[in-house]
Write a structure and sequence with these properties.
Elements: E1 2-6, H1 7-10, H2 14-18, E2 23-27, H3 31-41, E3 45-48, H4 56-60, E4 66-69, H5 79-84, E5 88-90, H6 97-113, H7 115-123, E6 140-144, H8 148-161, E7 164-168, E8 182-184, H9 187-191, E9 196-199, H10 213-216, E10 224-227, H11 236-244, E11 250-253, E12 276-278, H12 287-306, H13 319-323
Parallel strand pairs: 1-2, 1-3, 3-4, 4-5, 6-7, 6-9, 7-8, 9-10, 10-11, 11-12
Helix pairs in contact: 6-8
Amino acid sequence: MIVLVTEQEFHRAPDVFQSSTCQCIAAAADEMSLARQVREGGVRHVIVGSVKYTGPLYDALSRGGVIARFGVGHDRIDKEKATAAGVLCTNTPHVLDASVAEHAVLLMLGAARRIATLASEMTAGTWALGPAGLELRDKTLAIVGAGRIGQATARIASQGFGMRTIGFRRTLPPAPAEPFDSVTTDFALAVRDADFVSLHINAEPANYQFLNRERLALIAQRAWLINTARGTVVDEQSLYDVLADGRLAGAALDVFDREPYVPADPSRDLRTLANVLLTPHVGSHTREANRGMAERALQNVIRAVRGEFDGMDLVNPAVLKVIGGP
């Protein structure tokens, strides 16, 4: 069985793909090239990254084929078109929780201790203390999105650094708030006393630019914003404005509305601000998470071939009615 794996994802875990019982072949990620390779090779299954697919790929794959997302977010896969074509779509939940949570904390530490600025100055030959950094101990962290990654981040922050953690979610969970000190459905209450605000919500339509001008205004001026979730959940132009005006201490961002990052307004380029720390969407890019995502994506393909749909990480379960599954 041939499985096409988009090139960047293939090279993130080559040992897994090369040792698989499937014949995994690296493929171009752009939709036209990928769709053409699917058709020419009669391929039924693909493993893809975060490139947006709008049409040709769904037309190329046959009914019962799989688009396996190498990662958790699946907002750039058109589930409606895939479902109509009878194509199963999956993701790889849970295997990258620790990596993303650790990166969120790393960004928070980098912001608190001015790591990027100090490293740049040292490289340039400058030895200067500059403004004093912050200890994380006894600081308040508001976590927007209290799911598995948000919980993992709260656990590291509270148990590792002695921070107070407040979770925000739209509905209160039936279980206790652990590992949070408290959980609320009131965004203003969650962020008003926070020293750091970390985003961990998904990119569903309801969350598009969730952090808009109005919600940004509710965050304390001393706070840093951390985003390892999805770039689309932040209004980047409004974020630029509050950062440039000093209405927010700073932002540490790993994800962006357009990737590679390109500002929607060239006059509001986040890269030009001194109080911004940026990384190129590497929150899940660890050896452990890469291996886990590769193994989980392949597992989803194999289970589809076997008809073991209940064991798949389906993100478009309605497709089972189309293909005649259980």
